[in-house]
Amino acid sequence: MFSGSIVALVTPFLKGGSVDYDKIVELVEWHIQQGTNGIVPCGTTGEAPTLDYNERCQIIKTVVDATKGRVPVIAGTGSYSTRDTVAMTHYAKKVGADAALVVTPYYNKPTPKGCLQHFSLVAEEGLPLVLYNHPGRTGTKLTPATIAELFKIPEVVAVKEAGGDVSVAMDIRERCDITILSGDDNLTIPFMAVGAKGVISVVANILPKEWADMVAKYTSKNEEEALKKAYFYRNLCRAIVSENNPQGVKYAMRVMGLCSDDVRLPLIESSSHAKQTIELAMGTCGLL
Question: 76, exposed or middle or buried, with CB in 10 Å at 0-12, 13-18, 19+?
Fold first, then answer.
């Protein structure tokens, strides 16, 4: 159902910290013109944990309205609270999102049975779900066995696997036919080599055309050209997450004149060293 280069969209802020909704519309239009295959608002890169309920609702609606059905919108609706996740997923469906990206509940560290109940209840809203497994951020690992069990639910259509281990993607593929999307830009091609359909991407915020083209080349069996792109941008992918996401990619976007690099605490402005690393990588890739 979902494939290609799907951007994990940043949330741009105005000076003072309010959400820059006009800039979101500009970014969505730019991504569509550049060939991005889908848009994820309010994910990790969108700083969802520091957005309040009304902001998340308005961001999701703004993105849905701006896309006008031209590309899928996978709204980030997950949180550590099942009740809040259900409410946000209900809203996303109401305003026309194509799917919900639902992260494994973080901080409270549910058991596999707890995860099953959590996602099962969210699925009752009737919106297609993309599971989001990122144990490094959540403290909970969504195992291949649990993913296979969840795939029995009709609404569960895909998984964003961000554990950084290609063998996990292989384990998932052996157990079920769920659509796998890489959650790590530098693992996009390795994941696709073992059956993934694309990536939910951070670097696509600054390389939408290039990243979509890379995935398309690999899908069309032009593996050599796809690998050339993957290696060419490898250091840039590393640089923008060298401290914490989305601090780095927002700085790169500021350099490119796409949006400000303002983030919300507890995230902070990128350090001088990180900025130098990012600028060096951008220069090497011809972005400066």
Answer: buried
Instruction: With CA atoms as reference, report the closest residue to 264 among 51, 20, 23.
Output: 51
At 99-128, the pLDDT tens digits run 999 999 999 999 999 999 999 999 999 999
Is 132 among the catalytic positions?
yes
- Residue 213 neighbours by CB under 8 Å, 6+ apart: 35, 229
Helix%, strand%, coil% for the chain, nearest 5: 50, 15, 40
* 252 secondary structure, DSSP code: H
pTM of the model: 0.96
What does R_g of the chain's alpha carbons equal in angstroms? Answer: 18
- Band (pLDDT 50/70/90 cuts) for residue 22 is very high
- Strand partners for 201: 7
Annotation marks residue 93 as catalytic = no
Catalytic option among 21, 80, 91, 132: 132
As a whole number of angstroms, the distance between CA 49 and CA 107 comes to 12
Domains of the chain: 4-220 (3.20.20.70)
Of 196, 167, 194, nearest to 181 by C-alpha is 196
Query: Of the residues 21, 80, 93, 160, which is catalytic?
Result: 160
User: Residue written as tokens 């309920």?
Assistant: 53
CA dist 141 and 139 (Å) reads 7
Kindly report, residue by residue over 58-102, the tens digit of the pLDDT.
999 999 999 999 999 999 999 999 999 999 999 999 999 999 999
Q: Which residue's structure tokens are 């919300």?
A: 264
Before 266, cis peptide (omega within 30)?
Answer: yes
Q: Quick one: what percent of the chain has pLDDT higher than 90?
A: 97
CA–CA separation, 147 and 133 (whole Å):
9
